[in-house]
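User: I'll paste a sequence; please echo it back and then give the predicted structure.

Assistant: Echoing your sequence first, then the prediction.
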Amino acid sequence: MKIAIVGLGIIGGSMAMAIKKYTKHYVIGINRTSSTLEKALEMGAIDEIGSEDSLSQADIIILGLYPALAVNFINRNREKIKKGAIVTDTSGIKSAVCSELEKIAGENGFIFIGSHPMAGKETNGFSSADPDLFSGASFIVVPGSAPYSSVKLLCRLAVDIGFGGVRLTTPEEHDRMIAYTSQLPHVLACAYVLSPQCPNHKGFSAGSYRDVSRVAKINAELWSELFIENKKPLVAEIDTLINNLELIKNEIYEENTEALINTLAKSRKIKEQLDE
């Protein structure tokens, strides 16, 4: 197939590299920065430097763009996409993106399937791309009204480039779960390093500090968009976290040893059961 990848950041760039490494598909790179395209071509991550006009050649179009930019890009180029082509995004929110892109796809004869590769790093850009970034990772697919054959084709591509499994879901379930599994940890890490004690951590910190603070190396522009677009489920998760912190804080303040032991033991039991 001819696969056009729009946006060669860490996700789009890694997709391009993985497709070239593990499949025989032809990759067209489309990116705002020409130097990135030239580097990708030189490295063999893409077969061709493309433009918006190249979309007409693509059997699959992968959008490695921020959510709002992905919607705007497809809306602007809707007439250039060939009938029956598959368009998929890679963004971390689905309700806002899927409804818009499904509508545009239906009006213009191509197929939209939402997707979210559950992989990444603390660093960004094509320089951080890695053909094995997706090795063993989960590939979330939001089929919507897409034909089964198209969904199967996209899932097959994901497995071919290293994903360990595919999870089918709805936009609502995706956004609710991602608020907990991905967005809340980023909120927690950012809040954690805002402590006035953080600059003095060296010499006093080890694995616990690294584990909690790691994702505070955040792309502020991207994650602000993701947080706000998914504000209802995310705020609900933040409220739950605050309530749990208040519970533990009060048990410590009141020196209620028995209650504190029970709360900590309950947490440990939940984690151990989930790790089995």
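The domain at 2-169 is CATH 3.40.50.720 (Rossmann fold). Residues 171-193 form the longest helix (23 residues).
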